[in-house]
Amino acid sequence: MLWQVDPRDPQPLYEQIAGTVRRAIGEGTLSAGDRLPAAKELAASLDVNLHTVLRAYQMLRDEGLIELRRGRGAIVIASDLQMSKLTTLADDLVAQAQRLGVSRDELARIILEGEADE
User: Fold this and answer.
1) Helix or strand or coil: residue 27?
2) CA-to-CA distance for 98 and 12, rounded, in angstroms?
3) C-alpha closest to that of 12 among 62, 48, 66, 61
4) Does the keyword DNA-binding apply (predicted)?
5) Which of 44, 59, 98, 99 has its CA 20 to 30 A from that of 105?
6) Strand pairing partners for 67?
7) Element housing 76 (H / E)
8) Backbone φ, ψ for residue 48 (5° rounding)
9) What's residue 80's pLDDT?
10) Are 2 and 45 in contact (CB under 8 A)?
11) What digits encode the pLDDT tens for the residues 6-21?
């Protein structure tokens, strides 16, 4: 799996890291039982602060995609790959909107208006 972040991207680094994991789960590159790199090692390889990686991992844990075990690291537990795929698509949509200068509130309005048309 290719780990990379773009410091010029308006999306925070921790969200980029979490998005990489979500995408890999959605694409099937990562599956339940797979181990993620140790936060310290990933931080060093990406040249980011350790707390940035830990924040990404905590976010993924809160979403129910990984489990954090002291001494054993981060392990993928994603049981709902469809939701993971949807989350990945949503992350990509938000990132694209940011690149276009569209705020999250404006994006939400666009999505809700689209639902009203159905």
Assistant:
1) helix
2) 11
3) 48
4) yes
5) 59
6) 75
7) strand 73-76
8) -125, 165
9) 61
10) no
11) 999 989 999 999 999 9
Which tokens in the block code for residue 67?
A: 């489990």
Residue 57 corresponds to which amino acid?
Y
Residue carrying structure tokens 């159905």: 118
Count of residues making up the chain: 118
Question: In angstroms, what CA-CA distances link 37 with 3, 9, 76, 116, 118?
Answer: 10, 23, 11, 43, 43
Segments of the chain with pLDDT less than 70: 79-84, 115-118
| Separation of alpha carbons 118 and 113, rounded Å | 9
In the chain the domains, ranked by start, together with CATH numbers, are 13-116 (1.10.10.10)
3-state SS, residue 33: coil
Percentages (nearest 5) of helix, strand, coil residues in the chain: 60, 10, 35
